[in-house]
Structure formats: C-alpha cells, structure tokens
Amino acid sequence: MSATAHGTRTAVAGRTEPAERPPTEDNFPHVTPASPSRAPVCRADRFTAVEPGEPWTNDPYDRALRAGRGPLYLRRLTPHAHGAAELLPLDVERFCAPPDAADTGVLSRCTGPVLDIGCGPGRIVAALAARGIPALGVDLSPAAVARTRRLGGTALRRSVFDRLPGEGRWETALLMDGNIGIGGDPAALLARLRDLLRPGGCLLAEASPQDVDERLMARVEDAEGRHGRPFPWARAGTTALLRAARHGLDPHRPVDRRRPALPATSPSDHRVRCHEPHA
Question: What is the pLDDT of residue 54?
C-alpha cells in the first residue's frame, strides 16, 4: 500500500552496529520460504457512506488487490497547502506486477531473514522466496496476504505494531511503496523497526520522490467515490526520512518497555545511505 507518485523512487538504508550476542540458532527467526486512470469527480457530500471494518481490510483497497487493478487513491482529509494534490494515486497495477528494475536493486541488497512491512500483494516477498531467501510479509489486508501466499511467499495478516515472530532477530526490514507512512509517524515506525531488527540489521525504506514531510488523515477511495475508514498516514521525502531515521533509530530515544529493545549503541553507530534506483 502506497501513496508514492509515479517517477523516481528513493530507497534509504539504515544500519545498526553489531552488538555482542551468543551465536545460537535462536538469534534468528525461522521462516520457511514457500515453494492511466481518471480521478473521481463526485462531490465530497455525495461519497458512498463509510464502509464497516478496519482500513485496508474491507474497503476499495482490498477489492482492488483481488482484481489486480485500479484506479485507486488516497484521499487527503487533512487541510493542506495550496496546490497540494487532494488525491494521491495508488499504483495497484505495479504492486501486483512482477518486480521492476528498482525492486530488483532492493532485492539485491536483502540478506535473510527479511521482514517486509506492508507487503501488499507480495511481489517482493515472493521474489525473495524464489531466490531462496527466507522472508515474511505482514499486511492488514486479507487480499494482500492471500495473494502473497498464492505467489509462493509467506505472509501474516498483522500490524507492524502487533507482536511479530522473531522480534529483534530480523536481518533486513523493508518499507517499500510509501509504507514509511504507516501509523502517521515515521520516527515512531522506525523506532518500532529498531526493536524488530537484530544488532547490525539493515533497514531499506523507500522515500517519496517529492521533498515532502507531511502528517495527514487519509482514506482509500476508488474512482466511484467508494471509500473506507480514515486513518493516520505520513509522506516523507529523502530529507524527512533521514531526519526520522536519526530520531527513530536513536537508541537513547524512549522505547515501549512492553517490547524488547535492541542493546544500546552510540547514535554515531547508525549509518544511513541513500540511492535512487531507476524505474
């Protein structure tokens, strides 16, 4: 799921410095790899009533994934600056297609086991499985999880903020397709991923091609104006994502003590690098 506009995509990678940990098999999670549209024109007061259920589950997004096509949008519900688009296109066809050149560049940087947050219809998870790299996708959408499994990937219907398998033992975490927006607070999301990664683990996150840093309320909407429930979302360009990484990956930032935190290291031990894969 993504609010990434068409064009060049930027991936940001953050890595934490290794800390001492007994080299036992329990340090690693066990994952078995499985073998141009027109925008809505109806007025806001004529939209279809909000549908039941949670966002991304029983709404137009879920139905679009089952069909494998859009058009589909995020509608901005938060007041925005003059000139900012009210509808952000979701590229359902790309989500459901095989990995493109930019995806292949990300795949080449993945070391298993890999956790794909907001895996969508599973093109990345399935491609990793085909390469023999252990990978798990997590997504709120039943259609996303079902499609990932049909492609040969492993997926769970779960939020990244729920308890997940192998916490603190994932080698690589992925935030593709604009999923830095999950939860509406990139720094909090990255802090959660710090809990999930092993010491020395790597985060690969895709930034918006625009230089944006935005928190908003949004909902998924199709071309007929049918929509799901509102939810918090965020958009972050490269500069904003790097700033969130410095804050979210800071080991001295307060963490949720109900979840295990990684051993503390110096903030200077966190290395962040960027690249712009060609679509």
Answer: 66
Spatial neighbors of 269 by CB under 8 A, at least 6 apart, are 16, 17
pLDDT in tens, 48-68: 444 545 677 768 999 999 999
State the average pLDDT over residues 71-100. 89
Q: What's the predicted TM-score (pTM) here? A: 0.76
Q: Given this model, what pLDDT does residue 264 score?
A: 26
Q: What is the mean pLDDT of residues 27-36?
A: 45
